[in-house]
Amino acid sequence: MASLTPTPKQQFFDANGNPLVAGKVYxxxxxxxxxxxxxxxxxxxxxxxNPIILDSRGMANIWLQPTIAYKFLIxxxxxxxxxTTDNILVPVDNLSFGSPPPIGDVAPNTGAFTTLSATQDVTxxxxxxxxxxxxxxxxxxxTPAEGMFxxxxxxxxxxxxxxxxxxxxxxxxxxxxxxxxxxxxENDQTVTISYTIPxxxxxxxxxxxxxxxxxxxxxSIAATTLTIDTATSGAVAVGSIVAGVNVTAGTxxxxxxxxxxxxxxxxxxxxxSASVDAITAAVIVTVSSGxxxxxx
Length: 296
Known about the structure:
mainly beta
């Protein structure tokens, strides 16, 4: 299949349709007044002057970076503006994919992305910072995935999603104190979500310890999908044992689907059909066989 040839050499005209002899082409980054280079040929080795001075036929060789938006300001030889064209982009070709310049390679060296996906390794250098997304507990993603990381402004902690649930990242296991002291290991006094101490682990806690009231809400179960419609208090998590009218005894939540502790859907281990209203999930600490939990 053949394709239509692109314009091999750029030509510009004045308002009367005459070649813009000795006219000027100023090249800027799209949407800005920041000058950026164009080039004399496909290699990109030699930059044009900026402005580009058009020849006796109003023509010039203008080659552009394949992944950058340009703005052209066209003037006559005395700098009287003829017109401006913004956000000029080179059509996608093999160069666009073969060796795109890194972000920040050409001024303006900043960029904003709604979604940015990288494959394999990402390395940050310098002495600045990386700012994580900040949001309340209610702003957690509706469908979380393993490895997600964010700052929870409700709990004032960094948190990550692992093993089908959100958990604090860092801080909890370290010692704290006044100034630079690292003396005190602190723990909460109320267990609010069910937890299982693995068979290969032991645990120690300073008491008194109180088991929270657990989850109270409404919903239903269809096959292995639990749908929570309202959440009055507490939260559920993977491992929570769900109870309610017509709910099979011992039904356990095995995975989060769209819910993250409250309203949403979850996977349970026992297939059933339960058109229920009130749903509860008591807070239970399970000590696996061979493990120990010591409360001081």
